[in-house]
Amino acid sequence: MTASSPRVLVTNDDGIDSPGLAALAQCSVDLGWHTVIAAPAEEASGTSAGLTAAAADRHVMVQRRELPGLRGVEAYAVAAHPAFIVLAAVDEGFGDCPDIVLSGINRGANVGRAILHSGTVGAAMTAGLHGARALAVSLDVGLAQQGEAHWSTAAEVVRRLLPDIARLDQGCVLNLNVPNTQSLGDDSEPQWATLATYGRVQSKVTRVGDDAIQLRAVEVDGELEAGTDAALLAQGRPTVTAIRSIVEDNTRFGIRG
């Protein structure tokens, strides 16, 4: 590790025990970067950039952990959503403020405008809002895929991208999606993509009786928009999209003021 090595926070929304989290952290460790892992103690998918409400004493519990294969790497299980963890990190809650935040590797793609709801992407966008460079990473393990998740495939793409991530301007955020395949072959280079209006997997809300609402993920048919992240990913290509966090809209929609 050199004095100029970036400080990296690795988080996710699948929880501290996710193999995708360990695979992503290993990418940073392999580069000799100063790496700290802080992830939800339990799954926090779909939390966007939401912040966990603190307990009555205003404390959020943090437990030191050691992850398999990452001996000596500082790691914490936090009773909080990933965006809260990033917010704590930029306020030096886990040591010095991170230069780079890596979020993932999520089990399941995060494509299209629905990334607004993703805890994986929400963590990265929170990092960008506070001046860190950030990368959200997802593996396209579809609803019908019950077999092996090829974390190493996504990790290989990440390794190639990380030197470029370190050279980005402060506050830049990228969203990376990787097909769940054992090998990408000649298609390993991520392709720049626009956000689809909708992805192949969508959330469906259904009223169940008088006292409950059910939220579930469903796969939908139909042609995907050419050149979008959803379409290219369906063709077996890794995709990368630059995204922005909250910015003002100066058009004001014709309202004077």
Describe what you observe in this structure.
- With about 260 residues, this protein is an alpha/beta fold.
- It has a single domain, classed as Survival protein SurE-like phosphatase/nucleotidase (Stationary-phase Survival Protein Sure Homolog, Chain: A, 3-Layer(aba) Sandwich), CATH 3.40.1210.10.
- It has helices spanning about 20-30, 80-90, 120-130, 150-165, 230-235, and strands at about 5-10, 35-40, 60-65, 75-80, 100-105, 135-140, 175-180, 190, 200-210, 210-220, 240-245.
- The strands form two sheets. A nine-stranded mixed sheet has the order 3-4-2-1-5-6-7-11-8, with helices on both faces.
- Helix 1 (about 20-30) crosses helix 4 and helix 2 (about 80-90) packs parallel to helix 3 (about 120-130).
- The protein is globular, with a radius of gyration of 18 Å.
- Keywords: Hydrolase, Metal-binding.
- GO terms for molecular function: 5'-nucleotidase activity; metal ion binding.
- Belongs to the SurE nucleotidase family.
- It holds the Pfam family SurE.
Question: What is the compact description of this entry?
Answer:
With 257 residues, this protein is an alpha/beta fold. 21% of the residues lie in helices and 26% in strands. InterPro entries: SurE, SurE-like_Pase/nucleotidase, SurE-like_sf.
Amino- and carboxy-terminal Cα gap: 53 Å
Give me the strand/helix succession.
Answer: EHEEEHEHEHEEEEHE
The CATH class designation is Alpha Beta
How many structural domains does the protein architecture include?
Answer: 1
Molecular shape = globular
> Which percent range fits the helix content?
10-25%
Radius of gyration: 18 Å
Low-confidence stretches: none
CATH superfamily: Survival protein SurE-like phosphatase/nucleotidase
**Name of the CATH architecture:** 3-Layer(aba) Sandwich
| Relative strand content | 25-35%
What is the tally of beta strands? 11
CATH topology: Stationary-phase Survival Protein Sure Homolog, Chain: A
The largest sheet has its strands arranged as 3-4-2-1-5-6-7-11-8
The structure class reads alpha/beta
Q: Mean pLDDT, nearest integer?
A: 88
Family: Belongs to the SurE nucleotidase family.
Pfam families: SurE
Enzyme class: hydrolase
Catalytic activity: a ribonucleoside 5'-phosphate + H2O = a ribonucleoside + phosphate
